[in-house]
Write a sequence for this structure.
């Protein structure tokens, strides 16, 4: 049973991370989710497809996502029920995302960046822009197929980098699927964290492009 709030106590901030496929979220913003879960934020995930195109057997990638979600300290995964490689554009998918946003009522949303060589990532980003038009803080994350990504927001993930890698390694069926001999997806994550950390003047970071970002001082 979850503890109830005492009088005057504010509810924990809520984060909703969206990904087109299992492992998108872990690669793009897994460190940020773990870091903020550790500081008391509530974490929720929405994954549009089950990643069927890349799984060795039915249900494998969903099971991997469930395991990774535990490392992210996610309270719930919402499955979008879309077909892998065929995430649509249009009212139906916007409505699906809107219904999750309405249920979670997130303070922050993270999602795939729109300029990407994978059509599912592009379509999710475009649909999320419509579905989150009343959400204050919406930020795009990068992945291995992202293009033209020029971030202006950084989160220091030095303290949780190994946890991020562990979450990503939960997707064991995908670890070696980089199409680059000798490089794993964890190699990409470590390299990206170091590169974005250098940009942000820390050791390791995740980087984001904001659609909207409110900064309240004082």
């Amino acid at each position: 049973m979850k503890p109830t709030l005492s009088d005057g106590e504010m509810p924990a901030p809520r984060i909703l991370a969206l990904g087109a496929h299992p492992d998108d979220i872990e690669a793009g913003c897994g460190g940020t989710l773990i870091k903020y879960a550790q500081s008391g934020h509530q974490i929720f995930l929405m994954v549009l497809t089950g990643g069927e195109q890349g799984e060795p057997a039915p249900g494998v990638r969903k099971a991997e996502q469930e395991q990774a979600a535990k490392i992210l300290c996610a309270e719930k995964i919402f499955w979008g029920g879309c077909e892998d490689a065929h995430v649509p554009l249009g009212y139906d998918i916007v409505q699906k995302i809107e219904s999750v946003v309405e249920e979670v009522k997130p303070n922050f949303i993270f999602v795939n960046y729109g300029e990407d060589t994978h059509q599912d990532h592009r379509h999710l980003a475009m649909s999320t822009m419509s579905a989150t038009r009343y959400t204050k803080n919406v930020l795009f994350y990068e992945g291995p197929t992202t293009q033209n990504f020029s971030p202006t927001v950084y989160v220091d993930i030095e303290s949780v980098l190994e946890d991020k890698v562990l979450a990503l390694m939960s997707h064991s069926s995908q670890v070696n699927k980089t199409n680059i001999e000798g490089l794993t997806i964890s190699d990409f994550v470590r390299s990206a964290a170091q590169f974005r950390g250098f940009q942000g003047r820390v050791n390791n970071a995740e980087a984001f492009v904001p659609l909207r970002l409110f900064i309240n001082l004082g």
